[in-house]
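To close the section, here is one more complete example, presented without commentary so you can practise reading it yourself. The ligand is flavin-adenine dinucleotide.
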Amino acid sequence: MSAAPAVTDATFAADVLASDKPVLVDFWAEWCGPCRAVGPILDQILAEHGDKLSIVKLNVDENPQTAAAYQITSIPAMKVFQNGEVVKTVIGAKPKPALEADLAAFIG
Amino acid sequence: MRQVIIIGSGPAGYTAAIYAARANFKPLVIASSVEAGGELMNTTEVENFPGFPEGIMGPELMIKMQEQAAKFGAEILMDDVTSVDLTGDVKKVTVGSGETFEALSVIFATGSANRKLGLPSEDRLSGYGVSWCATCDGFFFRQKTIAVVGGGDSAMEEANFLTRFADKVYVIHRKDTLRASKIMQDRALNNPKIEFVWNAAVTEILGDAAVTGVTVTDTVTGEKRDIALEGLFIAIGNDPRTHLIHGQVDLAPEGTIAVHGRSSKTNLTGVFAAGDVVDPTYRQAVTAAASGTVAALDAEHFLQSLPADVLASAV
Ligand SMILES: Cc1cc2nc3c(=O)[nH]c(=O)nc-3n(C[C@H](O)[C@H](O)[C@H](O)COP(=O)(O)OP(=O)(O)OC[C@H]3O[C@@H](n4cnc5c(N)ncnc54)[C@H](O)[C@@H]3O)c2cc1C
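Output:
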């Protein structure tokens, strides 16, 4: 599981939508095997690129409102928010090089 | 240089690692970056692995296998093999980070990959209602109408699991009989939330931003009709993952890696294969584990047959 800070239905607006920096939200759940695999990769990306991109995680089980608002139907789902809008969506666990390529616009 | 590299971390790879590590060959397991543990990481209860009368969760079983391999000294690397050169006496295995490892022998246990329907709409709507993982995504289909495509054990397993969430689950199958085992069939056929759509092939997935339905074509009459639904879980089988070794290692007519008789020996000396990647028929956790044992013992025998100085050149 990613060690990134958690956001919730209650804190989503302040922590994600109002952020000055782009924020990647990792939508995950305890029962999702591939989510477990992607966590450590996101931790590495955060360690390497945390100056450009924030990374947070949202537990879809505990925060159904936000998951529904962004029409999550498949996890892991990673969405990058910039100025309150979704600017990039990545679905499914991917190896680090593939994920870095998907996120090149934010971490490049 | 290594004595043995094991590619893959499902029941075949980890069992081979347990044997090779206990025999002191210090195996390197290249486990994959995001799919370590293999197929069972994406299932719930495993009821037919001997030794667990109460059943065991797939991920828990795989984590235990990993721990057992690590306990005897297997080194486990969470990365993906991107290319191999297996034709020489020294086998070369390159991973996603760019690093290349050398070894005297390689055990190939890469399992199989989910088969796709092959429709353009399938890729476009993947993650937007099209899924290959019921345990990951079933949760999002509470009180919805969804479908599972397929007629084997995993299709029945997924359909039954998905009735925990969905109001209605269609099982869309190309034939009028199921390939699934009797116990799995009975569970699905007796589940009031499951409705079977027989002799039907999914020929289109409908929806712009998300799945709204499917078009099915009757495989007998050719007649087409649409079914409204919000999720489509595809469980139509798997193809052995052999792309890394095409042109180096011989394949069987079924597309699996060809092995000699009951052994794990491929056409290349020092290269062994185990698990679903060699098995077009049984494809169970316990048969994959057994096959991993065969590969480790074959590799052990091969390594012991090498001149002492060659074996000593590897750690
Ligand atoms: C939904 C579902 C439920 C199932 N339930 C059961 C059950 O209840 N009981 C049962 O006995 N069987 C069950 N099975 C079947 C069982 O999972 C397989 O038979 C078994 O996992 C095969 O083991 P394997 O080691 O050959 O391959 P896999 O488990 O597929 O493992 C292959 C491994 O190779 C790795 N790999 C592939 N390519 C690379 C690469 N390039 N680099 C690094 N690593 C790579 C993968 O990441 C993976 O770790 C189920 C299957 C599914 C899909």
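Once you have examined the tokens, check your reading against these statements. Chain B has a mean pLDDT of 96. Chain B touches chain A through 27 residues (CB under 8 Å).
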